[in-house]
Amino acid sequence: MRRFSQRHSLVTLSDINITPLLDLAFVLLIIFVITTPLLEKSIDLNLPRAGQTEKQLDRRDIRVVEISNTGYYALDKKRLSLPQIISSLAEDFRSNPNMVVYIRADKDSRYDLVAQLLDGCQRNHITRYSLRTNPAP
C-alpha cells in the first residue's frame, strides 16, 4: 500500500481523482431533471374556463396548435407562421385521417386568428378539431 504522505514532492500523481467529475455529473443531472418539465410549454397561454374533461385520444392522432394573444402560432411547440402550420396539418392529415387538431388559444387573443386557422383546416378537409379550455371548477 502506498502512503501519500511519504512521497517525494516532485513525483507526479498518475491516478485521476474522479470525485470532482462525479460531483459535476450529479449536478448536471439534477439541473436536467429540474429544467425538463419547464420545457413543455412553448407559448404562455391563459385558456378560458369552460367545459369538462374528456376521454383521452391516441397521442399520435393529436396535433396541438397554440395561438398567443400577440398573434404567434405554434404547432406542437414549434413557432411557425399560419401558412406553414396549415400545410403541415394538411400533410399530416393525408397520412393520418384520424388526426384531431387541438386549438389552444389565449382567452385574450383575437377571434380572427382562430377563424383563419379554422378556415385553413376546412379548406384542407380537416374537420376534427377541438377548441381547448381549462375545465370549469
Question: Which terms would index this structure?
Answer:
137 residues, 5 strands, 3 helices, alpha/beta, 15% strand, five-stranded mixed sheet
Write the layout of secondary structure elements.
Blueprint: H1 19-35, E1 62-67, E2 73-75, E3 78-80, H2 82-95, E4 100-105, H3 111-123, E5 129-131
Parallel strand pairs: 1-4, 4-5
Antiparallel strand pairs: 1-2, 2-3
Helix pairs in contact: 2-3
Can you characterise this structure?
With 137 residues, this protein is α/β, with parallel strands linked by helices. 32% of the residues lie in helices and 15% in strands. The protein has helices at residues 19-35, 82-95, 111-123; strands at residues 62-67, 73-75, 78-80, 100-105, 129-131. The relative contact order is 0.16.
**Computed structural class:** alpha/beta
Query: How many DSSP H or I helices?
Result: 3
The H-and-E topology, N to C, reads as: HEEEHEHE
Radius of gyration from the alpha-carbon trace, in angstroms? 26 Å
Helix content: 25-40%
The spatial strand order of the largest sheet comes to 3-2-1-4-5
Largest β-sheet summary: 5 strands, mixed
- Fraction in beta strands: 15-25%
Stretches with pLDDT under 50, minimum 5 residues: none
Q: First CA to last CA: what distance? A: 70 Å
Residue-averaged pLDDT: 80
C-alpha geometry: elongated
